[in-house]
Amino acid sequence: MGRYALRFAALGYLGVLLALPVGYVFYRAFEHGFAAAWDSVTTPAAQHAFWLTCEMVAIAVPLNTLFGVICALVLVRQRFRGRALLSAAIDLPFAVSPVVIGLALFLVYGRNGWFGAWLLDHGIQVIFSVPGMVLATIFVSLPFVVREVVPVLREIGTEQEQAAATLGATPLQTFLRITLPAIRWGVAYGVVLTTARALGEFGAISIVSGKLVGQTETLTLHVENRFQAFDLTGAYAAAVVLALMAIGTLLAMNVFKPKEGTR
Amino acid sequence: MLVYLSVIALIPLAAVVSKSTTGGWSGFWDAVSNPQAVSALKLTVIASFIVVAINAVTGTLIAWVLVRDDFPGKGIVNSLIDLPFALPTIVAGLTLLALYGPKGPVGVNLAFTRASVGMALLFVTLPFVVRAVQPVLLELDREAEEAAESLGARRLTVFRRVILPSLTPAILAGSALGFARAVGEFGSLVLLTGNIPFKTQAASVFIFSQVESDNVAGAAAVSVVLLGLSLAVLLVMGYVSRRVVRNGG
Questions:
Q1: ipTM computed for the complex
Q2: Residue ranges per domain, chain A?
Q3: Which CATH architecture group holds A34-256?
Q4: Angle in degrees, CA A189, A195, A197, rounded to 5
């Protein structure tokens, strides 16, 4: 009896807060038929937004993966002063509002910013153009790979690496043949989380992109734009595209998620 | 590596702190004590605390059902928990608005109310407590519970005296992460809450509106308060949960 009450309460809460709203948006996107939804996500603006979002992900994810693996190696394998500080600094994007991240980049790379004027003189516009949006996407998704790889590195220890080194392997060989295969699932899970975060970035991009339709409008900005233009089908259809991407990453998460008892 | 971190994150954040004090201490204070800023910060803090408190209960409940109960479709429900992490926040706001907004099919209109702020925050922070409590609950030794039960303790007493103390650090840790997330939340609030000053405008949305109207120094000042707030909560909760662990919780 008590068990069913708890189950009912938990599932009811999830249904009302999560499942029903998300399901209803799918319904609303297709209520005027599949053709109407398809038309509204294949307008030039929507297509451009989709590819721009993919571009953001394609730049930010590899860079953050590379940085994340190096950073995790440094944090776990090296002893130096300020290590705790570095570790805390990497987690900063979790504690900072995306809007504040956008403002921060604006203040440094904007027209009147610390580096912005110099960069503009050299023909590089960062804010209100794609480079600024890439910076914002990298910033918000910075910690994920580090956070997933650090615990795995701790757990595997250094014995095998030392054995490889005594047998004459170069540091690069040791990394490629011993360390990388051991951490690959952690890296993969971190990549999935980074992708999800990069796909959905909105707040920081709102500030640094200038929201120029067909130029700096990502898919998330496109959802807002369509909604505010009273094009509900367009907004819901674009939201469904993003939701499908999210569900795709969710499925990937379940594949890569570290499971109990597998290590 | 330090260059990457600095160029992307550290120098820009330093610029926010520096910008917030361009008008000196009094400029900072004026920006932060502006009635609209105070109202936005108050709403953010109060809503975040309420949401964290609700999450502590519902998150523990969901984790409990996922670990101790068994029913068809449990695997799907378990992966559904991560949906708020994967779903873009603007989509989260839109989905809530579609169902619980004007002309929604259920006949309740929460759009542009303070309740909508809370609902959006509940949506985006849902996974934190669940995902913190779940592994602890899985590892928990059942022997102490069985012992307590065989000695005649009622189930509620067992939960309160035996299980809950072991879960407390995880609940606190999940709550701290959820609070930091709630304080800075932006995307899900934009469409849903209407951003009415003195009523539903949260701090992050206030910052955004200040940037749009070219009051960058004011925006930076409120940003610093927000930043300090989430860092402070993360530090305090970290300290508290370490203490709870050390005291044998």
A1: 0.90
A2: 34-256
A3: Orthogonal Bundle (1.10)
A4: 105
DSSP percent split of chain A into helix, strand, coil, nearest 5: 80, 0, 20
- Name the residue among A90, A98, A219 with its Cβ closest to that of B184: A98
Strand residue runs (E) in chain A:
none
Instruction: Tell me the C-alpha to C-alpha distance, in Å, between residue A130 and each of A194, A214, B181, B227.
Output: 19, 12, 26, 26
What is the domain partition of chain B in residue ranges?
35-246
- Residues of chain A contacting residue B8, judged by C-beta atoms under 8 Å apart: 135, 138-139, 142
Q: Could you please report the per-residue DSSP string of B54-90? A: HHHHHHHHHHHHHHH---TTHHHHHHHTTHHHHS-HH
Contact B90 A224 (CB under 8 A): yes
What is d(CA A95, CA A78) in angstroms, rounded to the nearest whole number? 26
Which pLDDT tens digit goes with each residue over A6-28? 999 999 999 999 999 999 999 99
Question: Is residue A104 within 8 Å of residue A54, measured between CB atoms?
Answer: no
Mention every residue, 6+ apart, whose C-beta is less than 8 A from residue B89: A200, A202, A203, B124, B185, B186, B187, B188
The CATH class of B35-246 is mainly alpha
pTM for the predicted model, two decimal places: 0.91
Residue B99, judged by CB atoms within 10 A of its CB (0-12, 13-18, 19+), counts as: buried
